[in-house]
Write a structure and sequence with these properties.
Two copies of one chain form a homodimer. The first copy, chain A, is mostly beta strands. In chain A, about 10% of the residues lie in helices and about 35% in strands.
């Protein structure tokens, strides 16, 4: 970040919304505070003519209305979603794309129809390997005109917690979250959960569209095939304590007992614990991790009682999960600046 | 913008939300797409203990609960709100603060209790000149620890369309818009409409707090007193037509009939008209301005039928109001980078 951000990156930052980190305080993120990454433009969808088409390698293709989807049994999942590009600004050398610091996350109470029974109803034919999800958002990327489209391996698509979501936090999806219908794949980075869903196609080979072939892959060099991104890497974030200075966001904390709090999540496995450092990572102590009362796919709250002594401090938090993953202290580099789950560092000044 | 944006400015851009300009299509901005500028942190407010205090130069100071405010006659106003810093990035030389391009605007259907009857009830005493509004958001600015606070001249505070708003778009305010209560002053720049309102004080002299004395003033030089900002200057914005390229946001339009559309507003007077140019401002034509069906304080929709011919074009729109104000072609400069209502320019490539 030594060279600053270009006008093009600022254009993205101005239209894509981050979660102000103090909003980690809410179990479920209020609408309007959840992060939002829109590749192209937010489409306006007329639900009187909108249909979801399900076709491809299926025995009984289906065209279904929103009312018919809403009439099916509803499933609700509280799910933490994170952008695969979260943390990109901290990657060196600098990667040009949406310049997320750490705020590309949010948790929604999503409600919709489960995908698996719909796929059973249309009858996935022999030879199927993936399911493709196409949105209504259109644009140009990599010099290709395209609709936003991403696929899932058939096994993931058949998970019973994968939803076609029409509600969030008890109300119809707002336009920016995919009205009238979006895919919701708990535990996977946000690019998977295709918004403004119009078509589901069962495929007999892996999808090679732009968002699968080029974007959202871990590569060490331009041009190599790389590995596709999928599950959200383990991370903890902290509510910056005290009060901010407007321009610099520098934090000022009153000396004495100070409760540090935040959230931790992982798409790979259950969160096993969160460690906190108040000396820039030289020493670490266990934070108290609250039970997962919101279900497997939601972030978990953690807290740590700190006796803040006057002076300058660097606060850090570091999560680990049951699969043995732990956050790195330094930002890993890759061509796209993806999946940077390096430890958050919050500088604070403690005053008498 | 030739030198780029600093990390500090990016931190602001990441937490303050702009209206993606395609959302100008909605008469009333869906929650989550309205612009949002938060000086400090979004506070969490417990409504069981929250009260609004009304005191200062009044005969009968009042402490009132949210339920009591909701029990009073409700007033609804559809109001377009814009940040005084909108357009700041286009000001040269560069001004360091929240780096808005053009997206710091939105329109809400606000509902609440009118302020004037409350002030009549408490009895504004002789000698009163201003009314001060204090929020619950705390931070440091200009090396002063402060709560966010702004005042209004008594005459403006007594306008019958000034609200203490508890709802927006038919639901309780979300946290980021000032839950449980905010001031809403139609026609004034957004800094006036204090969020997370906790106290109203009637003053016998002009308020000289930081947000009044230092911020939100038009100055040609640091240190001079300058003129306070108040009413929103006339502006039109356009929905960028066609489809975007992801990174550059460059627009591609199909040749043929293309409806250009957008919104226009002014806090000074009724919008009188909108002119459109498709040749970078060399020639202008009248756009069709729709009636103000949402009331005086809401933006008005405009449209213009363009026969798009293949090639490169620069589209512009320029509004004027009944007070004789018209948008400038070049960005005016001032120390804070405020009130830059220069004409929007949208470059498009028209393809066969």
């Amino acid at each position: 970040m030594s060279e600053g951000i270009s006008l093009e990156e600022l254009q993205l930052a101005a239209r894509n919304h981050g979660l102000p980190l103090e909003a980690l305080r809410w179990d479920v993120t209020p609408v309007g505070l959840h992060y939002l990454l829109t590749h192209y433009d937010i489409p306006v969808v007329d639900t009187t003519s909108w249909r979801l088409e399900i076709d491809g390698l299926v025995e009984r293709p289906l065209s279904i209305s929103l009312d018919d989807l809403r009439a099916r049994p509803a499933v609700e999942v509280v799910s933490t979603m994170e952008c695969a590009g979260n943390g990109r600004v901290h990657v060196e050398p600098h990667v040009v794309s949406q310049p997320w610091l750490l705020e590309a996350v949010g948790t929604g109470r999503w409600r919709g129809a489960a995908l698996a029974p719909l796929l059973e109803e249309v009858g996935v034919a022999a030879g199927a390997v993936e399911v493709l999800f196409e949105g209504l958002d259109r644009g140009v990327e990599g010099e290709e005109e395209q609709v936003y489209a991403r696929s899932l391996p058939l096994g993931e698509a058949m998970r019973d917690d994968v939803l076609l979501a029409y509600d969030v936090n008890g109300a119809a999806l707002p336009p920016q979250h995919g009205f009238p219908l979006r895919l919701l794949v708990p535990g996977w980075y946000g690019m998977t959960s295709v918004k403004w869903l119009a078509r589901i196609r069962v495929l007999d080979r892996p999808f090679d569209g732009y968002q699968q072939r080029h974007s959202y892959r871990l590569r060490q060099e331009e041009g190599e095939t790389g590995e596709p991104l999928s599950r959200i890497q383990v991370r903890a974030l902290m509510v910056p304590p005290g009060i901010p200075e407007y321009l610099t966001r520098a934090r000022v904390v009153q000396a004495g007992e100070c409760v540090l709090e935040g959230r931790a999540w992982s798409g790979e496995a259950e969160v096993a614990g969160v460690d906190v450092s108040t000396d820039g990572g030289e020493s670490w102590a266990d934070a108290e991790l609250e039970p997962d009362s919101l279900g497997r796919w939601a972030w978990r709250r953690w807290r740590y009682e700190w006796n803040a002594e006057p002076g300058e401090h660097e606060l850090c938090c570091r999560a680990r999960d049951d699969a043995g993953n732990v956050q790195p202290l330094e930002s890993p580099w890759n061509v796209g600046g993806y999946a940077n789950n390096a430890v958050q560092r919050v500088a604070v000044t403690v005053t008498e």
